[in-house]
Design goal:
Length: 169
């Protein structure tokens, strides 16, 4: 029997700034396939046809005001902001630790300042739309998605390479 690796510590960096101790929580971008149900003649049941990926979004909650998040708000450049999640996962049966890094590029779609009440915790909520995503676990690149480059790599295999060739890219 083995115990799972659990997130023990994390940090978030924004455009190179270290936000140690300033991020209350975050929701890492879920990787979701866009599926379309299809049932043709001679098929006893439908199957899902893969139509690519759904839009990636990264939601995160600063524990207070971070003025730098406004620097690129409203930019027309869709990859202007870079966020880097650094996590440390650990198994409690062996004490083994594993680094996990997620790098995204995108732009902040929503900056919600939250409720203002004197003397209370006033967390913010940020939603960043993602145009580039890379997941690295223990030094191994596991997933890389480059929307504009039409690249979708999983464990080093680019699943869109042949499609790019087929359309002259």
């Amino acid at each position: 029997m083995a115990l799972p690796k659990k997130l023990k510590h994390f940090n978030l960096f924004g455009n190179g700034d270290n936000w140690q101790g300033q991020i209350a929580s975050l929701t890492l971008p879920p990787l979701v396939r866009q599926m379309e149900e299809y049932r043709g003649g001679g098929m006893n049941m439908p199957v899902d046809i893969d139509m690519g990926m759904e839009k990636l979004e990264f939601q995160w909650t600063p524990a207070g005001l971070i003025p730098g998040i406004f620097d690129n708000f409203g930019t027309s450049q869709l990859d202007k902001d870079m966020l880097r999640f650094a996590g440390s996962y650990q198994r409690d049966d062996t004490a083994e630790t594993v680094p996990v890094e997620i790098v995204v590029r995108g732009r902040h779609r929503e900056i919600a300042m939250g409720d203002a009440e004197s003397g209370s915790d006033n967390t913010q909520s940020i939603t960043t739309t993602v145009s580039y995503y890379k997941l690295t676990i223990n030094g191994e690149e596991v997933v890389e998605i480059d929307v504009l480059g039409m690249i979708e790599k999983v464990r080093g295999v680019d699943r869109l390479e042949q499609h790019r060739q087929n359309i002259g890219l």
